[in-house]
Amino acid sequence: MSKSLPPSSPDTPMTTESEPLLPILNNGGSSRRNVMKGVGLTLGLAAFGKAISPLATIPDNVSVDEFLQQHYKELTDDDKQEILARLESEAKEDYGADVSITDHRPIPGVKFGYAINLSKCNGNGKCVEACHKENNHDRSTGESYIRVLEMDKGSMDMEAGNTTYDHTVPQDDKFYMPVQCQQCDNPPCVTVCPVEATWKEEDGIVVVDYNWCIGCRYCEAACPYHARRFNWEEPTIPAEEVNPEQSYLSNRIRPQGVMEKCHFCLHRTREGRLPACLEACPTGARVFGDLNDPESDIVWLLKNKRVFLLKEELGTQPSFFYFFDS
């Protein structure tokens, strides 16, 4: 069962017309403060204040400059370089690790897609482990962007799927279905975000600006695939386990109080490499590629295999596919 935000208390500051969220004037442009104030007026001040409580004040680990940073898509190249340098410095200070954080942009003309062969997946969980390490997840929780559901053969009842099995796999009467972000073409998580902290990029990847996210968790509630994660605690990662190859919109260490999700390892795939989960799969169940390339493996299987979409009836139009050998 998902946790809920703690109830607001009498001491929790609320947004009102006479008492703005932050007592800081903005000298123009689209700041987080202006966006949040506008959304508050749209939703109703009391409802919006309750929705973001206890995030109505700047967290101790976030500077005013970081909190009021312009939207990622509005930043100049110089702005981005300053922010990346600051984040690298913070990683060194907080985790004792030397990291390189890059701004990986989409490859022109490429539309990424992913597919899993359910005839080959045996539930070994190596993809989950690889995601955990590659994406600098909190070590104490064992978090990952991937869940592997152990399902009864002949059933597609995901609610009955077991993600905490610890017995030998595969079981004869079961099949295994990994679930992660489906990178939808019609993503409900993007639609509900009140501050536009998440969006779909040109190559099909839905991303999150962790510096812009206010942690309201609307996107988590809207996602029908349970693909969003919320950082309840400050992540703990030993310096020697930090993956130093990072990107602003993917696997840099996320701060407490923000949402995160699978991003198709864009720090790898936008460099022409494969997702970490695919490379770790020992059964060859995973296929990744460019949906715009008629010669790609994923286009071939979409034309030649019995393919289905998860929860197709919802109209999310996933870029994630499942298929069987027969």
Automatic annotation (TrEMBL):
An MF annotation (GO) of this entry: 4 iron, 4 sulfur cluster binding
CDD domains per UniProt: PsrB
UniProt region (Disordered), positions on chain: 1-29
Keyword Iron carried by entry: yes
Domain 4Fe-4S ferredoxin-type: start-end pairs: 204-233
Domain of life where this protein originates: Bacteria
Protein name (database record): Tetrathionate reductase subunit B
Keywords: 4Fe-4S, Iron, Iron-sulfur, Metal-binding
